[in-house]
Write a structure and sequence with these properties.
Elements (H helix, E strand, L loop, with lengths): L2 H47 L7 H64 L2 H9 L4 H76 L1 H36 L11 H12 L11 E5 L2 E4 L7 E4 L2 E5 L4 E3 L4 E10 L2 E8 L2 E11 L6 E2 L4 E5 L8 E9 L2 E3 L9
Antiparallel strand pairs: 1-4, 2-3, 4-11, 5-10, 6-7, 6-9, 7-8, 8-10, 8-11, 11-12
Length: 403
């Protein structure tokens, strides 16, 4: 194989390689966009199911913020996918330009070669060219030359065919990509319009809240105090539960004293970080972990020790991992909370109307723990979910799959 052929094959392989990499990235972006679309549909469905005339402006504002957030994510996903397609179009166009120039040069060379061959060599002249050799070795060399010349001409013809086919394939791909990009552009424009409508609704609600600022500020402060009391109660419940469990073993520690069996459970739990199933069949995170600023009163903060998951009415809480029911407690009103121990880890499922397990029960992954309470005023069904390692709070979004 000569250098020219080697160079051509290397270029072709590189082209295929780069195309597959670009394709993979675009497919990943497409999958992400579709996932956000599914999440948006789910959020809108669950929020529309929770419609209530008695719902206050603060509740409405939180819903609008959730809708705006997912809307902005979806628009960003559309734009990212569109940019990826645009880059692919540019790369393909550049490749077509290069191929077109190479194809033109190849066809010219090939045409010149055929023309010269036709003018200068007939079947008889080729025989005479060999027969006129001075010796056998020279005749052999001339035969080899003629064979190489024929092979080279055939190779050039094959290269022309390959380049022409590659160009046709790229041109077809370009047409498809441009259609895809136009669809994305139209969809993004529609989503942008919806976003603007949501933002107008947000401004109207904010305006109504500011008319009764004193009332709503007092409501926010009261909710913050209530949440602080719940957080403190859960902290104490967990510390007391650890102390009680260790006391039975004759040990004194602020952390769970583990047996060989419970150490193995803790190791397995840790090994599944980022892969644990959601504690509900379907839903979305309506409050994230950590400190949250109020959308209007920026100086007001609440500490969220876990996540709040909005789900459908009648939904159940389910175990995110196998373990043992450590406690069942009331932490807010008549709503119950189930604490499940996984070695040194605890998962907490709060806001349950009823429970299906009891203290000491062994539970398996995705086992139903209880029915989630639906608020009579807002008509929302929300599970509060937390993860702890001994007395340390953890961010559930880092542990639950795609949270």
């Amino acid at each position: 194989m000569n250098k020219r052929n080697s160079y051509f094959i290397i270029c072709l392989l590189l082209f295929i390689s780069f195309s597959s990499v670009a394709q993979e990235t675009r497919k990943e972006l497409e999958a992400k966009r579709k996932e956000i679309q599914r999440e948006k549909i789910q959020i809108n469905k669950l929020l529309s199911e929770a419609v209530s005339k008695e719902k206050g402006y603060l509740s409405q504002l939180n819903e609008i913020i959730l809708k705006i957030d997912i809307q902005e994510k979806l628009i960003a996903a559309y734009n990212a996918e569109s940019r990826a397609i645009n880059s692919e179009i540019r790369r393909n166009q550049n490749k077509i330009n290069v191929l077109r120039a190479e194809l033109k040069a190849l066809k010219k060379d090939y045409g010149d070669m055929i023309y010269k061959s036709y003018k200068s060599k007939s079947e008889q002249s080729r025989i005479m060219f060999v027969m006129s050799s001075d010796n056998f070795y020279q005749a052999y060399k001339r035969l080899q030359y003629m064979k190489q010349y024929t092979d080279f001409r055939r190779t050039q013809g094959e290269q022309i065919a390959v380049k022409a086919a590659t160009m046709e394939q790229l041109n077809n791909t370009l047409k498809v990509r441009r259609k895809e990009q136009e669809k994305l552009r139209v969809s993004s424009k529609k989503e942008q319009k919806k976003l603007e409508e949501e933002k107008i609704s947000q401004e109207e609600i904010v305006s109504e809240i500011k008319k009764q600022e004193k009332k709503y500020k007092a409501e926010i402060i009261e909710k913050q105090k209530q949440q602080q009391r719940i957080n403190a109660k859960i902290d104490k419940i967990i510390r007391d539960a650890i102390a009680k469990a260790n006391k039975k073993k004759g040990k004194k520690s602020s952390k769970f004293v583990l047996t060989a069996e419970t150490k193995l459970v803790a190791t397995k739990f840790k090994g599944n970080k980022g892969k644990l199933p959601w504690p509900v069949d379907n839903g979305f995170v309506s409050t994230r972990y950590g400190k949250q600023k109020h959308p209007i009163y920026k100086n007001n903060e609440i500490q969220s020790n876990g996540v709040r998951i909005t789900t459908a009415k009648g939904s159940n809480a389910r175990a995110s991992f196998g373990g043992t029911v450590l406690l069942i407690q009331k932490v807010s009103g008549n709503k119950k909370a189930v604490f499940v121990q996984h070695g040194s880890y605890i998962t907490l499922y709060s806001g349950l109307e009823s429970v299906r397990v009891k203290k000491g029960d062994k539970v398996s992954i995705k086992q139903v723990l209880g029915k989630i309470y639906t608020d009579k005023i807002t008509n929302k069904t929300i599970l509060s979910f937390q993860i702890w390692k001994n007395t340390t709070r953890l961010n559930p979004a880092l542990w639950i799959y795609k949270m």
